[in-house]
Structures are given as C-alpha cells and as structure tokens.
Amino acid sequence: MLVEDRIAFVTGGAGRLGGAIAEVLLREGAHVVLADRNGPAAKARAEELAGTNGRRVVAVAGDVSDKAAVARMVEESVAALGLADIVVNAHGIFPNCPVLDYEPDAWDEIFAVNVRGSMLTIQAHARRWIDGGIKGAAVNISSGAARSARAGGAAYTGSKAAVNMMTEVMAIEFGPHGIRVNAVAPGLIVDDVVTSESPDLHPYVNMMLQGTPLRRTGKGEDIAEAVAFLASDRSAWTTGAILEITGGSHCGRTHMPLTQNLR
Ligand SMILES: NC(=O)c1ccc[n+]([C@@H]2O[C@H](COP(=O)([O-])OP(=O)(O)OC[C@H]3O[C@@H](n4cnc5c(N)ncnc54)[C@H](O)[C@@H]3O)[C@@H](O)[C@H]2O)c1
C-alpha cells in the first residue's frame, strides 16, 4: 500500500474529485478526514466510505477560505484521528463569467476559496509539521485551465495559475524541512465518463473531447491515483511538480491537421 497508516486531510471531500481521492487513499492504507463546507454531504460520503480497507474516515465541516474555520477543522481532525501528514486541497469553485460582467465580490470569492483556502490548509499543517519534525506532503488540485485560457475563465484560470505558482513557492520554502508540495492539474471530469460518441454532449464537452488525444473525459480515480503517488514516499524526490492529468488535452495544438503541403 502506498500510504499505509498515514493520515490525510482532504478538502472538498464531499465533491467529485475529493471523494474519489479519499477512496483511493483509504484503499492505499491511509486514514482520511473529509473537510468540506457542505457538512451533511461530507458526512454522507464518510458514511459511504466507512470500513474501506479497515481504515478510519471522519468528516469535518467549514469554509477553507476562513482562517478560524480551518484552525477549528484541523483541531477536530487531530482530535479524531491525530495530526494529518498528508494534505490534499481538492475543494474549489469554478464559475464561468465574462470579464465585463464581473462584480468585485464574485471575483474575490474565487481567489479566496481556490487560492487562499489552499494556502490556509497547508499553512496550518506545515507549522505543526515543522515544529514536530514531520515530513508531510501536500497536493493541490490545480487545473489544466491554469495554462489554457478560455472565455469566461479569467478568475478561475487565474486562480489556478496562482495555485501552480504557490505550489512551487511552497516547495522552495518547505523543502529544507523535508516537506513536499506538488499539484495535479486535471483535464475535464464530469460525473460520468463520456466520449465523442456519447449522446447529448454539451458543446463545451464535445469540443474538449476533440482536443483530447485519449478521447474520453476523466474520472475521479484518474486524478486520485496521481495524488496517492505524490503523497507517498514513491515520489520522495518530487516537489514543486505540476502533474497534468488531462487525457493529453494540455498538449498544445491537439486537434490541428498535419502541415504537409502547406504554402
Ligand atoms: N471536474 C473537473 O473537470 C476539474 C478539472 C480541473 C480541476 N478541477 C478542480 O478540482 C477541484 C474539485 O472539483 P470537483 O469537480 O470535485 O468539484 P465539486 O464541486 O464536485 O467539489 C468541490 C467541493 O469543494 C467544496 N467546497 C467549495 N468551496 C469550499 C470552501 N470554501 N470550503 C470548503 N469546501 C468547499 C464543495 O462543497 C464541494 O464538495 C476544484 O478545485 C476544481 O477546480 C476540477
């Protein structure tokens, strides 16, 4: 098992990716805290996962963009399972809004949740890791959007670009303490895996699939396997990495024809 008897604090644990990440970490031997602002959904997911691989799973509720709420959730998780030595930031919000329509509060919320929230959870744990000499590992769920502009994505793509850079800065600051900070940048993941042959595709999904060499959308497990690797000692010399898990959609001009005979 990749992370046997480790303890993982997974934000967004009630969500599509956070729930899948929790499941794989449990299967790989960790005990897991699901932290989510949707408390009932986190509790329900914890109940579904209870008993997986004989590991313990608990839910804590709060808003990760609020420093006091993060401190409380960390205290509750320590009381329930002990101090986590893995943090996975899998929470997030992803509104799509043209620049001309943005209100400042809506803009600020995206950065507060996606960037500040990820900083606060790692900050809260890293302080304890440094004080206790614990070589923890953090994994931020970024997005392929961090390196790929699209209409309506100014705040979201910007927030994920900030997550990428924050990951690298944290890798530099915490590396001397043996603490690793990496990110996974997923491509498109909807509730059910779809291909271009699937019926009733949203135009956005259809165009994304045309630019995806592996010709399907992702599943939570695709991301969770990468997170488990980055949280484990198998990646002991990996820090500051941004691992793109996108079915290849990040590879540039993925659906352009050959240039033969171009004049
Ligand atoms: N699904 C995709 O295609 C995709 C692609 C790239 C990146 N991502 C990123 O992966 C992460 C998870 O996405 P998802 O598809 O699982 O979304 P999701 O909406 O299913 O889950 C997100 C979870 O985060 C929680 N959350 C939101 N704001 C919070 C806050 N302030 N405090 C605590 N919890 C909060 C929500 O309650 C929810 O349970 C996000 O950061 C998203 O940007 C998703």
Molecular structure report:
The chain is of the alpha/beta class. It has one domain: NAD(P)-binding Rossmann-like Domain (Rossmann fold). The protein has seven helices and seven strands. The protein has helices at 16-27, 39-49, 67-81, 104-132, 154-174, 203-210, 220-231, and strands at 7-11, 31-36, 57-61, 86-89, 137-141, 180-186, 242-245. Strands 3-2-1-4-5-6-7 form a seven-stranded parallel sheet, sandwiched between helices. Helix 4 links the parallel strand 4 (86-89) and strand 5. The longest helix is centred in the middle third of the chain and has 29 residues, at 104-132. The chain is globular and about 65 Å long. It starts with 6 loop residues before the first strand and ends in an 18-residue tail after the last strand. The structure holds nicotinamide-adenine-dinucleotide (NAD). Nicotinamide-adenine-dinucleotide (NAD) binds at residues 11-12, 14-18, 36-38, 63-65, 90-94, 113, 117, 141, 143, 186, 188-189.
